[in-house]
Amino acid sequence: MTNHVMNPIVERILYNIEKVMIGKRNVAELGLVALLAEGHVLLEDVPGVGKTMMVRALAKSVGANFKRIQFTPDLLPSDVTGVSIYNPKEMEFQFIPGPLMANIILADEINRTSPKTQSALLEAMEEASITIDGITHRLEKPFFVMATQNPTEYEGTYPLPEAQLDRFLLKMRMGYPDQDEEIEVLNRVQQKPPIEDINPVISLQELRKLQSQIKYVHVDETMKRYIVEIANQTRNHEKIFMGVSPRGSIALMKAAQAYAYMYDRDYVLPDDIQFLVPSVFSHRIILKSEAKYTGISAEELLQEIIENVAVPVQRVM
């Protein structure tokens, strides 16, 4: 990376998260990329690796209203969005907001609930609003969803359709800590949960300002062509059945702007794009059956594509 100096505000947020998350700096950075780019995250991993703690730490760091929704097979869309109930005293319907009316949402085990309830969440993510009985309720900004899902080979799961996966800015995995990191986790929770010691380092108003500034990070024409060329390679690869849509190209550009801003730059570099491609594109492509049988992963294929696409020369700003 040409510029290793991180934006001081971003550094404070990450430092806060690292009080809870041990050895997961990259995961915390990617989560913050999505939040700053006004996108959402899909986190696929086994239970118990700290997904909830990370989202709670992020929410507390920015002073956000946080809600956790545990998705179960019997969860209804109204349990998520809210419901209108008739009040006989007032002689009118009153909206009782659901847990979606918060700033930061942890949608836990989203693939354990029915497609209908999944759609209610994903519609809110796409439109930043929910509609109950014909009345539209706008969601307060920032609105950020981190949805977790168990690996699809787990029993009792409903895999998310490709069109819904496309709504997530990026997908990531946390993975198990190594032995030393796990011992440090035990040390930190022995007396009391470290999440209790986390205080806001910025306000919601400051976060909104950061989000608005991201849009002005310069993306040179050569960088846009680089993004589109990588996306185009996924559409013509012999091992890929379905490549990345234009929505994926847009997502990569926005994520790169946020990542550049985090590293205190007002322009995007090829390094930013290369780092983000696996996280932004891996859930947007479908491998051919024969490719799956060989055991190759989407991330590995994308890395191969990156290596085969010529890196543009960045013009001096």
Automatic annotation (TrEMBL):
It comes from the Bacteria. InterPro entries: ATPase_AAA-3, CbbQ/NirQ/NorQ/GpvN, ChlI/MoxR_AAA_lid, P-loop_NTPase. Residues 233-305 form the ChlI/MoxR AAA lid domain. Residues 40-170 form the ATPase AAA-3 domain. SUPFAM superfamilies: P-loop containing nucleoside triphosphate hydrolases. PANTHER family: METHANOL DEHYDROGENASE REGULATOR, MOXR FAMILY PROTEIN. This is MoxR family ATPase. The lineage of its organism: Bacteria, Bacillati, Bacillota, Bacilli, Bacillales.
